Give the backbone structure.
Amino acid sequence: MTSLKDHTTAGSGRVVISVDAMGGDRGPATVVAGIADSAAKNPELDFILHGPEPELAKLVAKKGIQDRVQIRHAENVVNMTDKPSQVMRNGKGTSMWSTLESVRNGEAKVAVSCGNTGALMALSMIRLRKLPGVDRPAIAILWPSRNPQGFNVMLDVGADIRADAQDLLQYALMGASYARNALDLPRPRVGLLNVGTEEHKGRAELHEAWKLIDARKDDGMYDFVGFVEGGDIPGKACDVIVTDGFTGNIALKTGEGTASLIGDLLKEAFAYSPLSRIASLLALTSLKRLKKRIDPRRVNGGVFLGLNGTVVKSHGAADATGIAAAVKLAYELARSGFGDRLAARVASAAELAQDTPNQKD
Amino acid sequence: MTSLKDHTTAGSGRVVISVDAMGGDRGPATVVAGIADSAAKNPELDFILHGPEPELAKLVAKKGIQDRVQIRHAENVVNMTDKPSQVMRNGKGTSMWSTLESVRNGEAKVAVSCGNTGALMALSMIRLRKLPGVDRPAIAILWPSRNPQGFNVMLDVGADIRADAQDLLQYALMGASYARNALDLPRPRVGLLNVGTEEHKGRAELHEAWKLIDARKDDGMYDFVGFVEGGDIPGKACDVIVTDGFTGNIALKTGEGTASLIGDLLKEAFAYSPLSRIASLLALTSLKRLKKRIDPRRVNGGVFLGLNGTVVKSHGAADATGIAAAVKLAYELARSGFGDRLAARVASAAELAQDTPNQKD
């Protein structure tokens, strides 16, 4: 195996992603298949892969990507049922810990894991630490939408079940920064999720957050559209939807579940009669286009925001296509220097007291 | 116009529904078109219709349903932007107030309105009053699902943004009762919405509610499957999803928004090329079947539970098909004697202290 450090230190334009081979529902072969796809598509991409060396070496050799992958041996695996508190105490020696270590020591720009979300967030917090000025890191995802950019950003979708008004302001700042970098929107429109758009609706902390987010729109470089509703998550009223992790997680899973039910009913509808089976053959290209647009695997990857380093959480059930999508997102964020920009943005927010407008990021 | 009172007191098997003609986005002509559809389909159905008499009389005559509809004049209308507190003070003389009055005085079994939800709930609480033992009434809806019955019940979807553990227990009891009557499930399976199915996940009040709901499953005549996630709302893990009104409202609107986005993308996909347009013609029957299955208009109608009387809240934007669906739901609930059964169920729950198992409803 080549030393990837040479690549990174040489400033050759290569991008190194640290990938956890373990902890996903489909095992390391799927992860290796995913990174092999990514490696083929992005010639400047290299990987540090974490997990049991003998097994990973075989899988990597089978895909013929030995020169793009450096393997870091890790004996243990964080399971889906492990509690975050246990993993924080006993996580050393796991592939997840090792994956974050490569970001912590600067060898890789971004980490990717499809392991246990709670454990990954807990380990990320103790190993990478929170950015100064951030109380609760958040998980942001891209959601298919009616907007021209095709996706909206929503956060938090489950890093923390609580969020006070200050946390929601930080989510607005971080989400806007993410939308600028991932969706190329110079001045994203931020909406605060509530049960109605009228100002008197909803919980007290939302009214407080409304004022904070509105007051910071200029130095945060976003527009604030005020309260938005669940229907606006896939809509075009705003580009960034801000909410607490309890509500965001349930909205995300409700949307996924609804899309999946409709997909299955559509399949049933087309299998119903000989005529409809012919129709489905004729419509195959159209349906594939639709599926590509709303396929959750294509937008696989929640991003942990608010840490010293970027972590992409892939869906636990991701297949090779899903893993490749998560790696692609990691690659784009690494290449754009997103991590540094976000840190600068949050730092400037922490200097709120001085009220100095700051236009970078 | 005939006196509908004769019908009800005569015990002729006729069912009288009180309908608010005003307050919907599309105006009274749509409401009258909807009840005309319902009247044609259900010969034993009669209506008391509330709103400005001269206008309504014309619309009713145009549809030729004068002998099925009694008009109650009401000068004023509750608007979508009116605050519930204002309506509670000044609502007398509105069509909404009058609509509830017919249920309050026993002339009609169930009320239907497509007006402002907050105002309708506020007026329902002061005019019909809460059932003894109920602290927070809830709005329950039917959600297309993978279960054999085709729908799941979810509550609360927005009556109250707060719910403590005791409220969630009442929602479980009321939701199970509704599922028994509306979906014909003798022993519905209840799930408590959370961000994960593991017992340690989520907020403290959910852990408390878990214990309360589990303890009451036998006298509540339901099974308790424990915590469920957003993906289970359209799923088959349970039949009744219990949550607070903030989370439920956002989940509902997220699901509706996602379904609507997919529907539009599907139309686009089929309009894309001549071949796909031919395909869509061939697939028309299949697609219509699918649309009927997931069309929100077909399951239009949130039901207010926990009051002395049943109120069906139709979507504000409902067209005639949507109004007819809400009336159909009202009709079925009136005919099954649901209101009395629910009252008995909640009363038996209020006697929890005695721990007397009670098997009726």
Summary: Residues 1-134+306-361 of chain B form a domain with the Rossmann fold fold (CATH 3.40.50). The two ends of chain B are 37 Å apart (CA to CA). Chain B touches chain A through 63 residues (CB under 8 Å). Chain B has a mean pLDDT of 87.
